């Protein structure tokens, strides 16, 4: 979404490499204040002007614009139609017709209390005028659903165009030159010469104008330089000459065959590695459950709880076993006690109840410590 307000929406899209700007709008009616209508058409024109270069606009408007047919020409019948015609002409756009080939007005909108005879055309599709010969202006289509004949009816156009995206020049700037002392001075000058944009300009346009200034100035001051390595490779190729085409083709084929063989080998090795990993996991799981069964009901219950909590795909919890000079310790409390004694030796610490620690602190430093539990 590039822009949105309650009556106008601009969304960027893409078909292949061609960028589109989908514009959906609802213009105030002819009974709305003139200032409100002028503001809407001005905003629409500003948004079309703000589209980046190469972006194709496609418009879907409830323009509340009525045209009248005079000598087979559609002429503006109200102020909205006049503004629609001017905005489209300014931005090189074409639109669907308000009248069919027989001179009958296309009924895109039916007033709430009106009849079919009072239906008028106020809805339009818009596209670049360069597509004029590639657009089939089908007109109003009846969907024949529960909404048919109520309020608005859809306007349809068929487009058959071949869009070619122009080749873009490689962008970028010479960053190495920007990092030099002289380059930094140039960058400061570019920032200092930024245009002063009025505060009433929309924030999107404000950013766009600044970006245009910075990008153009930086590209002119620090043009991108081709890679020296690529240039050296080009000269080396010219020095060696092109060589025999048949020999080159044979070399390319040999390389393709070698690459294909390598891919097959790597795929087979990957499959073997995954299969071996699954076998190892299955063997490990069987061994863990076998050990749990031998350790008794409590151990097997613990393994079952692990599966219930984490799912069958979870890794089984490894049993904690600490081997000491006194033997193997398996209970968590015994393991913690052994670690405590080990680190106490290096810290020259002495084990004592928690309440005794509090009394020692008060007696030694005169500090005040709240009553502590006995353990």
TrEMBL record:
InterPro entries linked: Endo/exonu/phosph_ase_sf (IPR036691)
SUPFAM superfamilies: DNase I-like
Protein name: Endonuclease/exonuclease/phosphatase domain-containing protein
């Amino acid at each position: 979404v590039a822009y949105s307000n309650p009556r106008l929406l601009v969304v960027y899209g893409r078909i292949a490499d061609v960028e589109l700007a989908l514009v959906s709008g609802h213009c105030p009616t002819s009974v709305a204040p003139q200032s409100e209508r002028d503001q809407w058409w001005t905003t629409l024109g500003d948004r079309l002007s703000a589209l980046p270069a190469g972006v194709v606009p496609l418009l879907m408007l409830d323009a509340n614009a009525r045209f009248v047919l005079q000598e087979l020409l559609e002429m503006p019948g109200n102020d909205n139609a006049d503004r629609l015609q001017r905005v489209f002409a300014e931005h090189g756009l074409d639109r669907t017709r308000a009248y069919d080939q027989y001179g009958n007005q296309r009924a895109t909108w039916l007033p709430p209390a009106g009849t079919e005879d009072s239906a008028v055309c106020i809805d339009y599709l818009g596209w670049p005028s360069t597509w004029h010969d590639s657009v089939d202006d089908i007109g109003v289509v009846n969907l024949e659903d529960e909404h048919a004949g109520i309020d608005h009816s859809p306007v349809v156009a068929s487009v058959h165009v071949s869009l070619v995206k122009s080749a873009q020049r490689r962008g970028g700037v010479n960053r190495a030159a920007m990092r030099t002392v002289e380059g930094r001075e140039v960058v400061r000058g570019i920032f200092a010469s930024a245009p002063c944009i009025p505060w009433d300009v929309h924030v999107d346009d404000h950013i766009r104008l600044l970006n245009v200034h910075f990008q153009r100035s930086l590209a002119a001051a620090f043009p991108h330089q081709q890679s020296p390595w690529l240039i050296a490779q080009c000269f080396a190729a010219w020095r060696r000459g092109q060589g025999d085409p048949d020999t080159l083709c044979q070399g390319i084929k040999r390389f393709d065959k070698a690459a294909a063989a390598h891919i097959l080998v790597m795929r087979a090795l990957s499959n073997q590695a995954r299969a071996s990993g699954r076998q190892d996991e299955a063997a490990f799981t069987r061994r863990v459950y076998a050990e749990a069964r031998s350790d008794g009901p409590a151990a097997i219950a613990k393994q079952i709880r692990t599966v219930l909590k984490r799912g069958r795909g979870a890794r089984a919890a490894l049993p904690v076993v600490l081997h000491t000079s006194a033997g193997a310790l398996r209970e968590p409390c015994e393991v913690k006690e052994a670690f405590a004694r080990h680190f106490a030796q290096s810290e020259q610490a002495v084990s004592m109840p928690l309440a005794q620690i509090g009394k020692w602190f008060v007696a030694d430093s005169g500090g005040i410590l709240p009553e502590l539990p006995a353990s």
